[in-house]
Design goal:
The structure is a single chain. The chain is mostly beta strands and 432 residues long. It has 3 domains: 148 residues, Coagulation Factor XIII, Chain A, domain 1; 106 residues, Immunoglobulins (Immunoglobulin-like, Sandwich); 104 residues, Immunoglobulin-like (Sandwich). It has 2 helices and 28 strands. Strands 1, 2, 6, 7, 10 and 11 form a 6-stranded antiparallel beta sheet that branches. Strand 24 and strand 25 form a beta hairpin. It is rod-shaped and about 185 Å long.
């Protein structure tokens, strides 16, 4: 009994009321708490810090209710949101109140509580109903928190859960770190919640003060907050371990929680090109070498660097893999253009450079490429050889014809000589 008398039970009013049902004008409440009124049984107004009390296992609360439209008696009901965790014994938790002064009703609760209550917070709802002078129903629901304090034990240990940390931080830029916090407690409200962050490397600094004030985190709810930061120019492009300090009040006791989380710092790809190096013209049938210096001006590796040239009429697509370029390093992308012997004229195309950072984020740029392909220049020797070939091509049929005729004449002469020799031989035989 003595322990019960030491309890302090506090009933807190939420800032927002549920919209009224009934014959009320749109946007107004049928009932509201008058936080400046002091009624019988109250030592001060709600605004001045009025608190309910517990005496002889009974919880006593006085609510000044103001209404401009209600007429006659009104009814008030106290409902614990989670009946399984109710601090009250089974009983009727509905009372009626009469108008004590014009427009003001005094709602008095005197409810029995269990004698072994522990420190806890109990979300409740006050339902106020009545009628206006024409008999139309009026109603308002007001969320409250019933708080029990002063016991040696609490119903549970207050805790905070960091469920998610997200960020997109870049070197030398401002950013935010999004942190999702959850209250996993079943009967403990987190109040005066604050968040601090600290980067051991000193590269990530708070932008709007070291402490971010979050406020109240109700039972079973979560909240996502943004912690503004500035990333210094000297920051390393690598994961950074952030120390997160959470401070809050729960069951009128101060509490802290520290957790480490890793965030990444990246930098936009800073791949610079040193200008295309290539002859402006080439002789048909020869080759021209295109060279493009690529410089990594950032603080992180640029990977999968690929250079591709496209020049219709000479090559549809030709690529070379440059690979990884480290910070401060320069590499050359070289491609060879080889126009055919019968290709002549002015040709235009592009060279495209594609790459990614270590996180797979892509980047690319494109440059124009121009090349003039000229006819080969003939020398005096080439001209002489060409003339001989042309003359040879012109006389070759006649030469072949004459050669054939001479060959035939020679055969006839040989045959004729053989015949004459045979005749001479016969004549000699006849003389003998």
């Amino acid at each position: 009994m003595k322990r019960i008398n030491k309890w302090i039970a506090v009933l807190m009013t939420a800032l927002f009321l549920i919209p009224v049902c009934g014959a009320q004008a749109e946007g107004t409440e049928a009932f509201a708490i008058d936080d400046t009124a002091v009624m019988r049984g109250m030592d001060r107004s709600w605004y001045q810090g009025y608190m309910p009390d517990v005496s002889r296992n009974r919880w006593n609360l006085m609510i000044p209710v103001r209404s401009e439209s209600a007429a006659g008696a009104i009814t008030a009901e106290l409902a614990v949101n989670d009946t399984k965790k109710s601090p009250f014994k089974p009983q009727v938790m509905t009372v009626q109140a009469n108008e004590e002064t014009k427009g003001l009703w005094g709602v008095r609760f005197a409810l029995s509580v269990f004698p072994d209550q522990k420190n806890a917070d109990y979300p409740c709802t006050i339902r106020l109903t009545g009628k206006d002078k024409d008999g139309n129903p009026l109603s308002t629901e007001i969320p409250y928190i019933v708080k029990f304090r002063g016991a040696k034990e609490s119903i549970e240990k207050a805790a905070i859960a960091v469920t998610e940390v997200q960020s997109e931080l870049h070197v030398g830029e401002e950013g935010v770190i999004r942190v999702t916090l959850a209250n996993p407690c079943s009967a403990t409200i987190i109040e005066n919640l604050e968040l601090k962050m600290n980067d051991a490397a000193g590269h990530i600094l708070p932008r709007k003060g070291e402490t971010l004030k979050i406020g109240t985190l109700p039972i079973g709810e979560s909240v996502t907050v943004e912690y503004p930061v500035t990333v210094l120019e000297k920051a390393n492009v690598a994961p950074h371990v952030l120390k997160m300090d959470l401070n809050w009040t729960a069951l009128d006791q101060d509490a802290t929680y520290t957790v480490n989380n890793t965030v990444s710092i990246s930098q936009e790809i800073r791949l610079e090109q040193g200008g295309i190096r290539m002859a402006s013209s080439v002789v048909a049938g020869d080759s021209a070498t295109l060279t493009l210096p690529l410089m990594n001006m950032g603080k992180a590796d640029v990977v999968n660097v690929l250079a591709t040239v496209s020049m219709p009429g000479i090559t549809d697509r030709q690529s070379v893999l440059v690979g990884t370029i480290q910070p401060g390093e320069t590499k050359q992308a070289q491609l060879i253009l080889s126009p055919a012997k019968d290709t002549v004229g002015d040709f235009s195309g592009t060279i495209t450079v594609e790459c990614t950072d270590q996180d797979g984020n892509p980047a690319s740029f494109e440059l124009p490429v121009n090349l003039k392909v000229e006819k080969p220049v003939k020398t005096e020797t080439d001209k002489a050889d060409s003339g001989k070939n042309e003359k040879k091509e012109q006389t070759s049929p006649l030469t072949l014809a004459l050669a054939g005729a001479c060959g035939l004449l020679l055969i006839l002469l040989i045959l004729q000589g053989a015949i004459l020799r045979r005749k001479i031989h016969r004549l000699e035989e006849d003389k003998l």
